[in-house]
Each structure stands twice: as structure tokens, then as C-alpha cells.
Write a structure and sequence with these properties.
The chain is of the alpha+beta class. It is built from nine helices and seven strands.
């Protein structure tokens, strides 16, 4: 069953080679374009979750579209498998199945967990960008206040250039007083399910069950608001 702890594992991803690098900032340098990208798209996602004029199906569809635009989900779907990703290259049918299952899971996780911020705003810290690779790989710092809280939560967004477009490839949150880079944690959690044999089909079954649990939780919460 997905919990707040498992959300600490999700992010958009970089390519497998890039994700093997440590998340170590290189130098501080303001990047207004990167900061504006995060502010615009992160707040658009939160606005979609808050739009009560949308049906649940429409909200999910819009949120899915935003995720595909904002984050590099196809890359993370390979990265989180670790060495087992080689199976996808050898088996196109398995690859298609995993990509579809992981996309559904990703949308559900974000919708489920970002609900705690519904109605609030992501505030990017101007001029606090950290360049890993100038103009190509940037960490954008921001804060957001969870509903019912008074203190803002720091959130960092790692974004990279894909052609001419920015894409979120990792996110860090402070959970239980620890900073967690989400894509790295996702890989660790899935490794426990994959096991030593790298059983991708077992992982697909587990992820489908987790997604169904989240969808049930989301539906119950939405029903409670309408009551």
C-alpha cells in the first residue's frame, strides 16, 4: 500500500547515465527561465487538483497531461528498474506494459500526495538556482505550505534540458527531518520487489495493486468533500 513514505520515492527522472551521478550542487547561479518553468508548471498542476468544476475523470486526464509535459516520466520508468531495465530493451511487449503501468502509478502518486498542498502555491526562491551544468542541468529551490500548516516546506526541483524544453528529473522533499531525493529512493523501494532475479512482471503486479489502492483512497477523499 502506498504511503507518504513511498511518495518520497517518486520523481521524474533523468537518463540512466545521468542518474548514476550523485546529486551534488556545483555552483549557485540564477536561472530565471528555469525558475519560471518550475513556478508555472508546478502551480498549474496544483490548480488542476483544486478545480472542483472538473469531474474526477477530467481532473485525472488533465493532471496526466500536465505530468507528461512537466516531467520526464519515460526516463524514470527505466531508471527505477536498475539493471532489470535491460529486460525492456530485449522485450518490446514488456516495455510497453511497464511504461503504461508506471505512468498510471506516477499520476496516482502525484495526485494522491500533492493533495496536501491543494489550494496553496509553490513559491520559487528567485536567484537561488544551482547549476550542475550551465544552462542544461539546474536545481530550482522553492517552498510550499501544506494545508493546515504554518511553516513552509522546502522543495527542490532538478530540471534538465531535453532538446529545447526543460523537464523535471528529480525532486527533493524534507520528510521526517531528512532531505530525500525522490528518484533515488524510488529505485531502492522497487529493488526490494524486483528481488535478485529482477522480476519485472512481479513488480508490474505489485505496482498495479498500489495504484488501485491510491485510486480508492483518492475517490474516498473526494466523496468526503462532496458530502
Amino acid at each position: 500500500m502506498i504511503s507518504r513514505r513511498l511518495f518520497s520515492s517518486l520523481a521524474a527522472a533523468v537518463t540512466a547515465a545521468a542518474m548514476t551521478m550523485a546529486i551534488a550542487p556545483t555552483s549557485s547561479a540564477a536561472d530565471p527561465a528555469a525558475e519560471q518553468y518550475v513556478a508555472r508548471h508546478a502551480n498549474e498542476a496544483l490548480k488542476t487538483l483544486s478545480d472542483r468544476a472538473l469531474t474526477a475523470a477530467d481532473r485525472q486526464a488533465q493532471f496526466r497531461t500536465l505530468m507528461l509535459r512537466f516531467a520526464d516520466v519515460p526516463s524514470i520508468s527505466n531508471f527505477v528498474l536498475g539493471p532489470a531495465a535491460a529486460q525492456l530493451r530485449a522485450d518490446p511487449e514488456l516495455n510497453r506494459e511497464w511504461q503504461a503501468v508506471f505512468m498510471d502509478y506516477s499520476v496516482a502518486v502525484y495526485e494522491d500526495q500533492l493533495d496536501q498542498f491543494r489550494g496553496n502555491e509553490v513559491r520559487v526562491t528567485p536567484g537561488a538556482s544551482i547549476e550542475r551544468i550551465a544552462g542544461r542541468d539546474i536545481i530550482v529551490k522553492s517552498t510550499i505550505v501544506p494545508r493546515g500548516a504554518t511553516q513552509p516546506m522546502p522543495v527542490q526541483w532538478r530540471i534538465v534540458k531535453r532538446g529545447e524544453a526543460w523537464k523535471v528529473v528529480d525532486v527533493s522533499l524534507v520528510l521526517d527531518r531528512n532531505e530525500v531525493w525522490l528518484a533515488q529512493r524510488q529505485k531502492q523501494d522497487f529493488a526490494a520487489i524486483l528481488g535478485t532475479r529482477g522480476d519485472v512482471r512481479a513488480l508490474i503486479t505489485a505496482v498495479r495493486l498500489q495504484t488501485a489502492d491510491m485510486r480508492a483512497r483518492i475517490a474516498a477523499r473526494q466523496a468526503g468533500r462532496r458530502a
